[in-house]
Amino acid sequence: MSxxxxxxxxxxxxEAKPVEKGxxxxxxRILMTSRKNNARDQLVGGLYYGNDRFFxxxxxDEDAVRxxxxxxxxxxxxxxxxxxxxxxxTSRTFSxxxxxxxxxxxxxxxxxxxxGLESFEPSSFTSDQCEKMIExxxxxxxxxxxxxxxxxxxVGDAPQVLxxxxxxxxxxxxxxxxxxxxxxxxxL
Length: 188
Ligand SMILES: Cc1cc2nc3c(=O)[nH]c(=O)nc-3n(C[C@H](O)[C@H](O)[C@H](O)COP(=O)(O)O)c2cc1C
What we know:
- The chain is built from five helices and five strands, in the order βαββαββααα.
- By secondary structure, it is α+β, with helices and mostly antiparallel strands.
- The chain has two domains: 3-139, 2-Layer Sandwich (Alpha-Beta Plaits), CATH 3.30.70.100; 160-188.
- A hairpin with a 2-residue loop joins strand 2 and strand 3 (53-61).
- Flavin mononucleotide binds at residues 10, 30, 33-34, 37-38, 47, 54, 56, 58, 68, 71-72, 75, 77-78, 99.
């Protein structure tokens, strides 16, 4: 099995909607599909989205990367896809994330500042800048549970019916009530 890696830049064709649970809704849908498919195909990598631009990095089995990229190229949610890296890989460089997602975070802003770039325009990244972006994705500590794979609900925002403090309070109140009933019963 031969491995390869691939990075590209593209421009979103959709009009960005307000962020819901930390992710733009179109991007959330892309991520859900990507995570399902990439986990199945043992592909890893990351997706950056900001300034209506995408930067995506994929690595894994060559056939799987190429099949996935063929689907991505046909996707009408983006255009002007520019391949930045497409080459063989001797060993995997990511741990087991199927698709890390990092919005235009402080790390990327620092990187843009360092490089003297005013906005996120990945299609004009040099190969050195691409490697730095990949390194940012690799080291990203973004909460990867933000987009739940099954129902697009943020795990962090899942409604908490009762907080643990309230639960403890109810248990104590229940015990006090049982105690009172037992004591009351013995006094009758
Ligand atoms: C910017 C962008 C990145 C995408 N990345 C992936 C990806 O990593 N893996 C994937 O399977 N689909 C990805 N997609 C979605 C594919 O274009 C396509 O819709 C999807 O693979 C179809 O999957 P399905 O046949 O399971 O419905 C991406 C789409 C866009 C616009």
